[in-house]
Prior knowledge:
The chain is an alpha/beta fold. The protein has helices spanning about 15-30, 60-80, 95-105, 125-135, and strands at about 5-10, 35-40, 50, 55, 85-90, 110, 135-140. Helix 1 (about 15-30) links the parallel strand 1 and strand 2 (about 35-40).
Amino acid sequence: MGTYQHVLLAVDFSKEADHVGTRAVALAQEWGARITLLHVVAPVYQEPIYEGVTTLPLDIEAQLLDSARHAIADLARRLGVPEAERRVEVGSPKTVILGTAAALGVDLIVLGSHGVHGLGLLLGSTANGVLHGARCDVLAVRVPS
Ligand code: AMP
């Protein structure tokens, strides 16, 4: 069996993200594989209370994207992942992770067994959704609960 050639590492910036990332980078280095980091920002929906009046500042999504870009740059620097291999997208995390994996033709997705949403579960909802929908192998790095 050949080794993996392109790894997609999905990161949520929970406190375990460095641990999950270190595992993924070590494996990719061993295989000589390319590694791409991905974070997905959930879209911000704004309910108008009166016509044209919303409860949230209009640029909140832009601020979230900006913070995510800084956070992914910091994490990528710590992991030694080059700038061209960092992605921040907006959407449903599960859908975007699966779509990006298909678009890039990766052969392995690495994520944490659970992150900020899945504490206490065997597998978090993102991990579970990715595992069920992926067309390639998925490695869930165990995160202690
Ligand atoms: P969860 O299933 O949401 O508890 O998260 C499990 C794992 O999925 C995390 O450890 C991350 O590796 C990945 N993940 C969760 N949310 C995101 C996100 N918004 N963007 C990228 N990866 C994510």
